[in-house]
Design goal:
The protein is of the alpha+beta class and 97 residues long. Helices cover 37% and strands 14% of the residues. A 3-stranded antiparallel beta sheet has the order 1-2-3, with no helix packed on it. Helix 2 crosses helix 3.
């Protein structure tokens, strides 16, 4: 059963950064519909417009000598060379190192 959703609601779901469960409850839709919107399978024109607004990563990445599977950017981010995923930064409870 398809759920009725306006373009404005779908665009709001696309921009929402909360977990999918929370978004689904807030908008009164199923989690699978939220997943379809976030992945671009539902309302493709909205997804394409949203993706075009996202900033392009122009940072220079350099390999880390002792860690061949990782690269560091000029602004201090670390990413995996195989997946392209940027690692999350967090402070350790005992200090920064």
């Amino acid at each position: 059963m398809e759920q009725k959703l306006s373009d404005e609601q779908a665009a709001a779901i696309l921009r929402d950064d909360r977990p999918k469960v929370v978004i689904a409850e807030a908008f009164g839709v199923s989690r699978s519909l939220v997943q379809q919107i976030k992945s671009g399978r539902h309302r493709r024109h909205l997804y394409d417009a949203w993706k075009a607004e996202q900033p392009i990563d122009t940072a220079e990445w350099r390999s880390i000598p002792d860690w061949p599977l990782y690269e560091a950017s000029e602004d201090g981010r670390i990413r995996n060379t195989r997946t392209g995923a940027v690692l999350k930064q967090r402070e350790m409870p005992t200090g920064p190192y």
